[in-house]
Amino acid sequence: MMLRLFQDFFDGAERAAKDSNDLSSSTSYSKSALKRVLKEFNGKDIRKLIELLGKRVVKHFTEASDKATGADEVTSIAAGTVLVGVWKACEEEFMGLTESYMARISQSYGDSGVGLEYSVSDVKGAFGRMRV
To answer: Could you give the CA distance from residue 42 to residue 46 in angstroms, rounded to a whole number?
Structure first.
């Protein structure tokens, strides 16, 4: 749920930036609104979110694989399976979103002194911990 709020903020900021180059005039996307959103979503949250996503991906794709092959339960992202492709796509999406958020903050809030509490390398590391 928190990710939805975070993503909605940046999607709205992107739309508002297209209409006006100055987001500071918008109360919904002001520097203080950005600070509130960033305060609610930190590096620990992104790691938990990626861990939860990993469990869901493993569960859903393992169930489909088990039904097709009759294999025992798998608890991590195993090499050579569809899981690897799905997991890689999830990682690329998260990294792309992170880069997009960082670019929006830099472009629209550069002088605010605030930024994401996590980086692309944090995302990559969290995804990497879920691999075998």
So the answer is: 7
pTM: 0.79
Residue 24 DSSP class: G
Helices vs. strands in the chain: H and E counts, helices first: 5, 0
Query: How far is Cα 88 from Cα 48, in angstroms, rounded to an integer?
Result: 18
Q: What angle do CA 96, 102, 107 make, to 5 degrees?
A: 125
pLDDT tens sequence across 18-75: 877 667 677 888 888 888 888 888 888 888 999 999 988 888 877 555 555 555 555 5
Residues 6+ apart with CB under 8 A from 16: 23, 26, 28, 29
Q: Are 42 and 117 in contact (CB under 8 A)?
A: yes
Cβ(55)–Cβ(90) below 8 Å: no
